[in-house]
Design goal:
CATH superfamily: Phosphotransferase system, glucitol/sorbitol-specific IIA component
Number of domains: 1
Order of helices and strands: EEHEEEHEEE
Oligomer: single chain
Largest sheet: 8 strands, mixed, barrel
Strand order of the largest sheet: 1-3-2-6-7-5-4-8
Radius of gyration: 13 Å
Number of helices: 2
CATH class: Mainly Beta
Strand content: 35-45%
Helix content: 10-25%
Structural class: mainly beta
Number of strands: 8
Shape: globular
């Protein structure tokens, strides 16, 4: 299991019309940061997420249905992933995404614990 804590939420990161959360570690650029939820990892990280595993935001648990082609690499290198709370599209899938169920966007605040397991 790999854990992180939400350190900051960009001014445009959470949008009620989008079923998507963009996560980045603290290396995010200032311009991009306003669109992201900034997470800080505790300890080393080496991701190998697969379908059937879970991601949780505090006590809100989500089943991973699809892992994008570069998701684990981007998480290792820059703590970056787009979490999509919706159906897996047949075309134009995000290559850096986790498609998860249920389709409800979690409540996130500074201090939210994120667990990848």
């Amino acid at each position: 299991m790999i854990e992180s804590v939400v350190k900051e939420i960009g001014s445009e990161a959470l949008n009620n019309e989008e079923s998507l959360i963009i996560l980045f570690d603290e290396s995010v650029t200032e311009g991009l940061g306003k669109h992201c939820v900034i997470q800080k990892f505790s300890g080393a990280r080496s991701f190998n997420l697969k379908e059937g595993q879970t991601i949780s935001f505090d006590d809100q648990n989500y089943s991973i249905k699809k892992v994008g082609e570069v998701t684990n690499k981007f998480l290792d290198e820059m703590g970056h992933v787009s979490v999509v709370f919706g159906p897996i599209p047949t075309e134009d899938r995000l290559v850096n995404a986790l498609y998860v169920e249920p389709y409800e966007v979690p409540t996130i605040k500074a201090g939210t614990l994120i667990k990848y397991q």
